[in-house]
Amino acid sequence: MADVCELRVGGKIYGGWTEIEIQRGLEQVSGQFSLQVTERWPGQEEPRPIMPGQLCVLTIDGMPVVTGYVDDCQPGYDATSTWFHVSGRDKTADLVDCSAIHKSGQWKGASLARIAADLLGPFGIAVVVGPRAGAANKPIASFNIEEGETVFDCLERAARLHALMMWTDGQGRLVIDLPGVERAKTALAEGENILRADGNFSWRERYSDYIVKGQGRGHGQHAVKGSAKDSTVTRHRPLIVLAEDDAHGPSAGERATWECTVRRGRANRATIRVQSWRQQGDAGPLWAPGQRVTLNSPRLRVSAEMLIASVTYLKNANDGTVCDLEIADPRAFDRLAGVRTASLNSTRHSGGKGLASGKSDKGRKKKKDDEDWSML
Question: 21, 83, 163, 242: which has the highest count of C-beta atoms within 10 A?
Fold first, then answer.
């Protein structure tokens, strides 16, 4: 039987949950879950003796998807029934909640991987450096903890220096990497297996110009070090970014490009709902963050390979067992890795067969370079 969710805690396994919500994502350093069961009076006072703070592993069909701790327990009852609600997060939630502390709070010539290992050691959390994160082993000339910041905020600053991302792997470990190229076995097609789709294209957090400033040596003020432009944002919307270190030359320009690229990737999203938590009609692997999936949806103006940025596994009386996939343009993440990928295909102009035909090669190339999902 597929889509079986169980919570392992205190040496026992608890299943039979009637309401389930599990969230995992590439931009979510800690996965989280919310489970509830409602029963007729079972004839015992405490059917599920789960306590906050306990170690737990949440599994789907035996596969760990959240490994961490119970945050909240909410038992209740009325005249006819009892209920129990429990929620928790991955071990890496402590990195979001807790302050960064390490000796003097300063590193000289240490890599991101070393800084992460030093900060995560007291929490008992392992660090995994992925195959696309070679830069995580490169030394950073000087790096300091800022007073009062959390472990995650500290590491995120360090990760930005190398244009890397962080997430958890469902086993309670911190992953430093960029999304890979694993492909889903099931395509998403409008009118076939898409139950619902919601697009969101926003300029709210996007800017026309990104200007990176670093502390100029020998000066008491900031000096401009690098810039990048978002050609899609046509009105004047400049943003000044203070560099995380004393950036000079190309590194400041790369930092500005990182800011532009990440904001574009986060601004253009769609949420696709499908039946079941698994691909290929319950027979395939779980839908998971980081997978590449072919999406054909004229109403969302796209026919191309997209990236699953986050996944929410849901089960309740109204919706049944469904999965919400947050879809993003993979080019934004590939640009961070220095990988050149194909452009999106606009279904609005070409019925799902690519960009409008009849243009010169030069014009077509320019369109690909400037292409933005929100503008197709």
Answer: 163
Q: What is the C-alpha radius of gyration for the chain, rounded to an integer number of angstroms?
A: 23
Of the candidates 218, 192, 344, the one whose C-alpha atom is nearest the C-alpha of residue 275 is 192
d(CA 3, CA 164): 32
Rounded Cα gap, residues 189 and 180, in angstroms: 23
- Name residue, tokens 């000339």: 141
Pick the CATH number of 181-376 from 1.20.1060, 3.30.9, 2.30.300, 1.10.1740: 2.30.300
Measured CA to CA, the distance from residue 105 to residue 270 in angstroms comes to 40
Q: How far apart are CA 240 and CA 248, in angstroms?
A: 16
Per-residue pLDDT at 299: 94
Q: What are the C-alpha distances in Å from 303 to residues 100, 234, 242, 257, 350?
A: 44, 26, 38, 26, 10
CA-nearest of 81, 83, 86, 116 to 102 is 116
Average the pLDDT over each of 26-40, 55-69, 148-162, 347-361 and give the range with the smallest value. 347-361
pLDDT digits (tens, 9 = 90+) for 298-343: 999 999 999 999 999 999 999 999 999 999 999 888 877 666 556 6
Q: Give the span between the Cα atoms of 325 and 290, in whole angstroms.
A: 11
Q: Give CA–CA dist 248/226, Å, rounded.
A: 8
CATH architecture of 95-177: 3-Layer(bab) Sandwich (3.55)
Confidence of residue 42 (pLDDT cuts 50, 70, 90): low
Number of CB atoms found within 10 A of residue 227's CB: 19
- C-alpha–C-alpha distance, residues 225 and 223, integer Å: 6
Report how far residue 195's alpha carbon sits from residue 274's, in angstroms, rounded to the nearest whole number.
5
- The neighbour count for residue 85, using CB atoms within 10 Å, is 16
At residue 355, the pLDDT reads 31
Instruction: Tell me 180's DSSP state.
Output: -
Q: Which CATH architecture has domain 5-90?
A: Roll (2.30)
DSSP assignment letter at 375: G
